Amino acid sequence: MLFSKPILRKVLGLVTECWPSLRDHSVATQPPCLQHRLFPATAGWHHLRLLGFRCLHESYLGYEFEITLEPGQHCFHPASTLELQPQNSYSKIALWLTQQQLTGCQTVSFQTKKVPLCQALACVDLLNTGQVATVDLSEWLALQGLMPRGRFHVLQWWQHDNSYTLHCQTTDCLSRACYHWLRQQAIRFQLVYVRHI
């Protein structure tokens, strides 16, 4: 087995502790973490579920792909450039917390906000953090890099009944890194931050 049963129980316990939409309220014994937005709607950010991703082809101008997103509460009108901030999946954050022997709902300072640790880790590059030293977690978070944010040219887009599909193209090294995250690590129905600029 890749993980022992005790480790898996701890990971699943952290997932249901930190993200209330995944817990069974009939058997919940502790209140869940309060949910916070790391990137504000006032700056144009939407927190949307990723419904699909499809590679198209590569040219000298960059990688082309299609991405499908839920529409969100407000009508989302794609513009000529789409900015996307990747986000770690719930299970990946819970596994990392378990490995570090940390709890997810302790409050930390992150990007001028007081948020639960599990949510502060959403956009942190967990692959390159290493072992957490016994220091103030807010100070440690301030030293961590975020996952690569991509800016993509929107070549075409289509509106469906409950989603948007955008035909996009990478623009630079950061957008290519974000593209590879979408291709290799993104999970269907997970949340990402997006805005049109």
Q: Low-confidence parts lasting 5 or more residues at pLDDT below 50?
A: 20-30
- Give me the CATH fold name of the largest domain: Elongation Factor Tu (Ef-tu), domain 3
Q: What count of structural domains?
A: 2
Lateral strand order in the biggest sheet: 1-2-7-6-3-8
Class inferred from helices and paired strands: alpha+beta
Query: In percent terms, what proportion of residues is strand?
Result: 25-35%
The SSE order reads HEEEHEEHHEEHE
**Residues in helices, as a percent range:** 10-25%
Tell me the number of strands: 8
The CATH superfamily of the largest domain bears the name Translation factors
The residue-averaged pLDDT reads: 81
- Broad CATH class of the largest domain: Mainly Beta
Number of helices: 5
The CATH architecture of the largest domain comes to Beta Barrel
The dominant shape is globular
